[in-house]
Design a protein that fits this description.
The complex is a heterodimer of chains A (about 100) and B (about 425). Chain A has about 100 residues and is of the alpha+beta class. Chain A is about 30% helix and about 25% strand. In chain A, a hairpin with a 2-residue loop joins β2 and β3. About 5% of the residues of chain A have low confidence. Chain B is about 30% helix and about 10% strand. In chain B, β1, α2 and β2 form a beta-alpha-beta unit. In chain B, α4 crosses α6. Chain B is globular, with a radius of gyration of 23 Å. The chains are: A alpha+beta (about 100), B alpha/beta (about 425).
């Protein structure tokens, strides 16, 4: 599915309540430290630096919002802002994108 | 409270499920005979992987989620099945970046490549002028490379790579290389000359001087991530702040090489039996080599930096390049031969004889030319002890091999 949002959000301004997904051209490989992400279009490599962040990103496409994905991965509500920053960075590099509908 | 995770660079030292940066040299055949060829390419090896074996390797890379491979050679495009392998890989989630001297990049091929999302092309160029380039890569090679670049640019292939190996004769052309890349809408990639393959024979005369290394470091610092380096200059970090990149020797940890006959080496610059981890034709294929080979397990253990560990630059230079040390006869736990603190030069003066790069697929005519320019090495030694009788080898076909008639214990002369 193509990304619904075509404009790159500025890092730090991340819509936690929107539905997100891994971009179609991105491949994700779990590793001991978290995961490697590769975008076949931009040819950029990126890293998920913890298994919890991997769990969040993996479930983005099936959760109604990024906030829900964080909760489902067991992120305490107080830590959500920190994960939002990581997700904002991934959105800025087009690794994840907003999807239409919840 | 959770434990602080190790920095990524520390994590990578202990290895990954699959390489991030896998180089796959498809053939030793090449139309050129570059004097610094890291794989001593020229003639095709009769044992090179067949098309079916290459397809099986691609299937395995897809299963291991190796996102992309850097295909090289030799000149990979001279393999008749090259374009079919490229289509197969990109159709199976394995992106391809291939290195070429440009000989097959016609306008038609350039148009096909430009339409491909998962393909990147890297044209080799070692001089910003024909004079400097052709002295290293061969007469006419500059024109061939420039024609390929023009074809790619005309076809609308944006951001292809121009790959330059830094030598004493082209450091002064850095701005000109950048201008060539900008002119074609391409991206410049600068890498380090290693004393690997045929490079061993010319390294002394071609590697940049200390003053040029300094110039290169500041040029790279000024250009940041605009210019790619394949992470090959971390030995220069001792000059100041670290250059962009992982700044780590990835050999066997994040990097490896599959050579044309399927041998797996720790890195593309370490084609030598000492760094041979296994073969993709063995049981368990490439994955077994990557995950279980003894050599790779050793490389993933904490390494000793030896005397370098007490140096203020060790945190970012990490002792430099394993292959550069090995092929100049330096110990692997000592300084890089191009150490910016000057320790390499001193170590080289006392270095052991350098191991000969092997295997060698140099064109016979080119080999003769190289041999003519090289001094003949002489070894002086005491006479070896005379064996009591000729050694019996496994190939001795004489039915009386090893037989000593009774009463004949002395040596035959």
């Amino acid at each position: 599915m193509a990304c619904a949002a075509s404009t790159d959000p500025a890092p730090g301004q991340f819509d936690l309540d929107a539905p997100w997904q891994l971009a179609a051209q991105v491949s994700l490989r779990p590793e001991a430290f978290g995961a490697l992400l590769y975008h076949f279009g931009t040819r950029q490599l990126s890293f998920l630096k913890s298994p919890v962040l991997l769990a969040v990103v993996s479930s983005l496409g099936t959760q109604p919002s990024a906030r829900a994905a964080c909760a489902a991965a067991g992120v305490p509500a107080g830590d959500t802002a920190q994960y939002a920053r990581a997700l904002a960075t991934l959105a800025a590099s087009r690794m994840i994108c907003q999807r239409e509908g919840p | 409270m959770t434990a602080t995770p190790l920095p990524l660079v520390e994590q990578f030292q202990y290895g990954l499920q699959a390489p991030i940066c896998l180089t796959w040299e498809l053939t030793y055949a090449c139309n050129l005979s570059c004097v610094h060829c890291l794989s001593s390419s020229g003639r095709r090896d009769p044992g090179e992987l067949t098309t079916a074996e290459c397809l099986a390797v691609i299937d395995e890379l897809q299963r291991m989620q190796v996102f992309y491979v850097n295909i090289g050679g030799g000149e990979p495009t001279v393999r008749p099945d090259f374009w079919a392998l490229l289509e197969y890989a990109t159709g199976h989630d394995v992106g391809v970046k291939f290195s070429t001297n440009g000989v097959k990049i016609t306008p038609e091929i350039a148009r096909r490549l430009a339409g491909h999302d998962y393909v990147d092309v890297q044209i080799s160029l070692d001089g910003a002028t024909a004079e400097v380039n052709d002295a290293v890569r061969g007469l006419g090679s500059y024109d061939v490379a420039l024609r390929a670049m023009r074809n790619l640019a005309d076809a609308g292939f944006a951001g292809f790579k121009i790959s330059v190996v830094m030598t004493r004769h082209n450091v002064g052309q850095l701005d000109e290389f950048k201008a060539i890349a900008d002119g074609f809408g391409a991206q410049l990639r600068i890498t380090r000359l290693r004393p690997s393959g045929r490079g061993a024979a010319v390294w002394d005369e071609l590697h940049p001087t200390a003053a040029q290394q300094r110039e290169l470091y500041y040029w790279l610092s000024a250009h940041g991530t605009d210019v790619l380096t394949g992470d090959s200059f971390f030995h220069l970090n001792g000059y100041g702040t670290a250059l962009p990149g992982l700044n780590l020797c990835g050999a066997g940890r994040v990097v490896c090489l599959i050579d044309p006959v399927g041998d797996v080496y720790a890195c593309p610059f370490a084609i030598h039996p000492s760094f041979l981890a296994g073969n993709v034709r063995g049981p368990g294929g490439f994955a077994a080599v990557w995950r279980h080979s003894e050599l790779f397990r050793d490389l993933r253990r904490p390494q000793s930096g030896g005397a370098c560990e007490s140096c203020s630059a060790f945190g970012t230079c990490r002792g430099g390049c394993m292959a550069a040390k090995f092929f100049t006869g330096l110990p692997l736990d000592g300084p890089d031969p191009e150490c910016v603190k000057g320790h390499g030069e001193r170590a080289l003066a006392a270095a052991a004889p350098a191991p000969r790069p092997a295997p060698d697929h140099t064109h016979r005519a080119a080999r003769t030319r190289t041999a003519e320019r090289r001094p003949v090495p002489l070894t002086l030694s005491a006479h070896p002890p005379v064996p009591s009788r000729p050694p019996v080898t496994a190939c001795n076909a004489n039915p009386l091999a090893g037989f000593v008639p009774p009463g004949h214990s002395g040596a035959a002369s």
